[in-house]
Amino acid sequence: MSAAQTTAADLPPAKQKTSTGPGAGTGSTGAAGKRARKGAVATPWLLLAPCLLVIVLVMGYPLYRLVSLSFQSFGKSELWGFKEAEFVGFDNFAKILGDGVFWSVVLRTVVFTVGAVVLTMVIGMLIALLLQKVSGVVKALISIALVASWGMPIIVATAVFKWLFDADYGVLNYLMSRLPGVDMIGHNWFASGPQGLMVIMLLVVWGAVPFVVITLSAGLTQVPKELEEAARLDGAGAIGVFRHVTLPILKPIIVMLTTLSVIWDMGVFPQVFVMRNGNPEAEFELLTTYSYQQAFVVNDYSGGSAIALVTVLLLLGVVAVYMRQMLKIGEVE
How would you label 131-165 residue by residue, b for 16+ Cβ within 10 Å and e otherwise? Predict the structure, then answer.
């Protein structure tokens, strides 16, 4: 049989091409994959939605009112509806930034915050290191005491400190007067601003140290003992081991704790307010109490809002520094 005589029936059936590329599959399968990917992206946001809604309701509106009031002329007449609030632009900020009293309050707040943060971190680190050297029973007892003091309400702790440092019935004056050559009976710890702020600073540090100790103690458990032993074999002492081994590992935790301490200590209000019987003198004014005084005592709500907004901006600057440090450390990509 010649090639010309070959019919189509004699030829083998043609093979059908089968796609094996990356896009193989039915259209329904591809659509299902896209829906699954969209669902995976949307699920975290759906879970976060209730929390975000609460944050917007609790913080969003007050922040909006704070910003709006700081750009208005708003006093008692506007509060009671006798007068419409007037937009004044940056006049409130120009007023407070040109006031020497405001800058003295800012300086006092910065000094108070730095002192409280340094004392908190140093004392907290020392206690955390000490807890690594004591027995389990002692460590448990100290931890319970720290948690109990940390859980004490601020108002209760402030009332206790106010009694301890009372000029007439204070326990501290009595105990110090028992020392040879020391007479502290009737000593007024709040006779001067610096001395009184030191007492308030001790109260703030006392309330903040437990959290720092507990957090640093948890971090110290992650320090490899092998690295410490290797450093000691290389001739490093206790300070050298802490500086070259422990401190670098704890650096992210220390940065976080320092940032939180700055934010909390700049926002100190009830301690000063209660210690000074609801009316802090000028030498005891911090940014928070000064904003309160301007808004609710002087009835200059717009001026108080402007001071509060400046405080918020300062705290945002602290947060920005924190984020930058975390980026350097490599915790945030």
Answer: beeeeeeeeeebeeebeeebeeeeeebbeebbebb
